[in-house]
Amino acid sequence: MVIYKAAVIGAGTMGSQIAQLISSSGLPVILKDTNEEALKKGIETIRRVFQGRVEKGNLTSGEMEQKLALVRGSIRYDGFQDTDIVIEAIDENVKVKQNLFQEIERICPDRTIFATNTSSLSISAIASAVKRQDKVIGMHFFNPAYIMKLVEVIPGMATSRETVDDVVALSESLKKLPIKVQECPGFLVSRLLMPYLNEAAIAIWESAQPIRMMKEVDQMILSMGMPMGPYRLSDMIGIDILEKVSDILYEAYGPRMSPARLINEMVKAKRLGQKCGTGFYSADPEKDKELDTIIKKEKMKYFLKSTPVSIERLIYPMINEAVFTLQETIATASDIDTAMMAGVGFPQDKGGPLHFADQIGIDIVLSKLEELSKTLGTRFWPAYRLKKMAVAGYLGVKSGKGFFTY
After folding, report:
1. In whole angstroms, what is the distance from residue 46 CA to residue 87 CA?
2. 26, 40, 133, 180: which has the fewest C-beta neighbours closer than 10 Å?
3. Do 7 and 109 contact (CB within 8 A), yes or no?
4. pLDDT by residue (tens digit) across 309-322?
5. Is 140 tagged catalytic?
6. pLDDT (0 to 100) of residue 287
7. Residue 294 pLDDT
8. How many Å from the N-terminal Cα to the C-terminal Cα in the chain?
9. What distance in Å separates the CA atoms of residue 228 and residue 235, rounded to the nearest whole number?
10. How far is 333 from 91, CA to CA, in rounded Å?
């Protein structure tokens, strides 16, 4: 099916950015929200993105106005009767999304694809509320959507091949890189990213000098080639979002995904990241002292000892989870690495977490994970495939074979 018209529900950060992408490709799009104020902010976001391109010389003012004319804001479902795809970008709540899809199923034509931008919720569970389950699919964009290339395409249990193919084609027409991912809690990128961000939160919680260590760790990860450190990234994503996703992953995968207590405490203290101006970082020095106080209070409460921080402590859990997803055939080794480079900026010279493991040596990665498991906890317990590869001589680049051949 060729997609001629789209609608996006939710005029927040992600919804407005997705609508901007669609209009930029030349397709008309309806941007819907429940109130005029949210809608106004969403349209302003779209204009701001286009204006940035005009200022850089990538777009003329006339072209910008033509593309803006393709966007129509609405607080009602006017125009949904002939949409080919509806993409929702609303609250991360299964029931809320189910209710929404039930509502639009009564309005949209039979051909309409219902896509959800959820980062971690079950596609099959969302689809279970509607009759046309074959038309429901995950289409997960990454923030900022107008820059990040990756789109995770996640079929539910009943999603048709035609729906998958149509969404892949749409993603490509938006100049995105679609990666098909089998349904699982957290999908691919969020599932690999959370152990890394969670460990960073645990590390600062256990640090003797938390604020200083936080800045040093972010710089250390920058020097490795990542676009930003884990604390800056956490602030950008939103500490409350991290809490929700980590709870979902813990429920699904157990102890190795145990949420960092500091994340919960920061949410309680309303340190939610960039959206409110204060998270791990703040422009106000007094807010830094507040974070320091929260951490020291928690350390005393749980009698925590200071623990060393290293690149291995943060990056190896990401590698380990990549191996778990490979074991479960969530995605291919090549797609896993591509997704992490395109979705979170994993350094291209390292080729993604699995290529990076091959460069380091599978035996070395395994040995370090076993060491960390003994000293810091069973969340570092190595995936079985690492052990199987090590004993079979699949050690990576040095043996000519690992996750890839050399």
Report:
1. 16
2. 26
3. no
4. 999 999 999 999 99
5. yes
6. 81
7. 85
8. 40
9. 11
10. 31
Q: pLDDT at position 286, please?
A: 80
> Residue 304 contacts by C-beta under 8 Å, 6 or more apart in sequence?
205, 206, 298
Amino acid at 101: F
Local structure of residue 273 (DSSP, 8 states): B
Q: What is the pLDDT of residues 27-36, one digit of tens each?
A: 999 999 999 9
What six digits make up the tokens of 247? 């709870």
Q: What are phi and psi of 330, to 5 degrees?
A: -70, -35
pLDDT at 305: 74
DSSP 275-315: TTTBSS-BSSHHHHHHHHHHHHHHHHHHTPPP----HHHHH
C-alpha to C-alpha distance for 294 and 43, rounded to whole angstroms: 38
H-helix or E-strand spanning residue 72: strand 71-74
Residue 206's pLDDT is 87
Give the DSSP H/E element, type plus range, for residue 103: helix 94-105
∠ CA 279-281-283, nearest 5°, is 110
HSE-up of residue 296 (Cα within 13 Å, Cβ side): 10
150 forms bridges with which residues in the sheet? 177
User: What is the 3-state composition of the chain as percent helix, strand, coil, each rounded to the nearest 5?
Assistant: 55, 10, 35
Low-confidence ranges of the chain (pLDDT < 70): 300, 302-304
Predicted pLDDT at 296: 80
- Residue closest to 321 by CA, chosen among 256, 277, 373: 256
Region of 337 on the Ramachandran plot (φ > 0 left; ψ -120 to 50 alpha; else beta): alpha
CA-based max dimension of the chain? 63
Answer left, alpha or beta for residue 194, where phi above 0 means left and psi between -120 and 50 means alpha: alpha
Domains located in the chain, CATH noted: 6-180 (3.40.50.720), 189-302 (1.10.1040.50), 311-399 (1.10.1040.10)
* CB burial string 154-188: b at 16+ within 10 A, e below: bbbebbbeebbebbbebbeebebebbebebbbbbb
Indicate the pTM of the whole model: 0.92
CB 31 within 8 A of CB 74: yes
Catalytic residue among 140, 176, 299, 379: 140
